[in-house]
Amino acid sequence: MPSVVGLLEQHELAARRRVDGLREEADRIQAELAAAEQEWQEWAIARRRVDTVLAPHGGNTAGTEVTEDPQVADAPPQPRDAAKPKSQVPMWREGLAWSVLSVDYQRILTALADRHRLHQGALTCQELAVTFGLDAVPAKVEALRSKAKRLVEPC
Which pLDDT tens digit goes with each residue over 27-59? Predict the structure, then answer.
């Protein structure tokens, strides 16, 4: 008959192996996520460059030399009063910049602005979740819906 301590050790070993396996999987997923985010940022930069070139006044149509430094053009804006993650949405007022919003809210506004710019119509919260690489499960969709509502409702 096996001892109680022996059985406990077997269960502890199995649990530890499971935790180790899950940690390895989480590390792999984190690395994959970082690579996917980097690719996404590169595509966003490429799109902004094309938008700049194709803009009515942004292109170099007269054959004149463009004097803007490309490294400065591709650098993300450095907001003066950037919001910290999970901060509250400030009350909207005329002239309020997007930079006062947290990154999550800026992503929502950027996705909606892109959709409007491309004349693609409304964007559902499920589509927004998929756009951000989230599973379209109720918890994720409702979290996005809540954030989107904070952007349009007075506090």
Answer: 888 888 888 888 988 888 888 888 888 877 644
95 pLDDT more than 60? yes
Work out the number of other CB atoms within 10 angstroms of the CB of residue 129.
Answer: 20
Is the CB of residue 92 less than 8 Å from the CB of residue 104? no
Q: Specify the long-range contacts of residues 84-90, CB closer than 8 Å, at least 24 apart.
A: 88/155, 89/150, 89/151, 89/155
Helix or strand run (H / E) with residue 143: helix 138-152
Angle of helix 103-117 versus helix 138-152 axis, rounded to 10: 80
Instruction: List CB contacts of 141: < 8 A, sequence separation 6 or more.
Output: 125, 126, 129
Q: Is the pTM of this model over 0.90?
A: no
- CB within 8 A of 73, min separation 6: which ones? 49, 52
What does the pLDDT look like over 138-153, one tens digit per residue? 888 898 888 888 877 6
